[in-house]
Amino acid sequence: MATTTTIPIVFSIGGDPVKLGFVASLNRPGGNVTGVSFLSNELEEKQLNFLKELVPRVEVIGLLVNPNNPNTENTRQHALDAGRKLGLQVHTLNAGSELDFGKAFETIASHKIGALLIYIDPVFIRGREKIAALAARYAIPAIYGLRELSYGANLKDTYRQQGVYVGRVLRGAKPGDLPVLQPTKFEFVVNLKTAKALGLEFHPQLLATADEVIE
After folding, report:
1. How far apart are CA 67 and CA 192, in angstroms?
2. Residues of the chain under the 50 pLDDT cut
3. Tens-place pLDDT, residues 103-160
4. For the chain, what is the domain count?
5. What is the CATH number of the domain that holds 180?
6. What are residue 181's DSSP bridge partners?
7. 78 with 170, same domain?
8. Which structural domain, as residue segments, surrounds residue 180?
9. Which of 42, 66, 140, 173 fits a 20 to 30 Å CA distance from 128?
10. Are 133 and 175 part of one and the same domain?
11. pTM of the complete model
């Protein structure tokens, strides 16, 4: 966007493209930019609610974010607001690189945090195996924003929507006239194997809502 105002740009993004300054509005982006938003911020209340159902006695939930991500403050505020609605305290944990993962989990242990919400970020996607291993070591229930790990938008469908827009632009459509799309498919994946290792039990009604159960 800083380089060109004429070459079409079709994005996929987890944050709010209006607040981040990418588009003028979702319905009428304007300019040379449009795309798809994962709605990751708007999903936080649902994710926190899942954690509360899984660990009913939890009072403090950790929110793992990358402080270098421009959407972090918006994410944190959404999580705090969602936590208040559910009667939960949300404690922010920062990790700007994989080297910070260990310290973040040490903080979880020292602050007696009962569950963990991990925000979508490239650092966490690359380091998801390390995060999963640390969550198991510290016996902390966690929910993630991607299908590979828990609850969120179906990324294959999101990227398909992005590809459809690229096709429309190549056929002559103007990005500024194409509304920013939002996910239409969401997935809830439950890992029973991990839950059993942590001594947790899923309520049958919660399991019934899962799109996939890993046993």
Report:
1. 31
2. 148
3. 999 999 899 899 899 888 889 888 888 998 898 888 888 887 665 456 667 778 888 8
4. 2
5. 3.40.50.2300
6. 36
7. no
8. 9-39+153-184
9. 42
10. no
11. 0.71
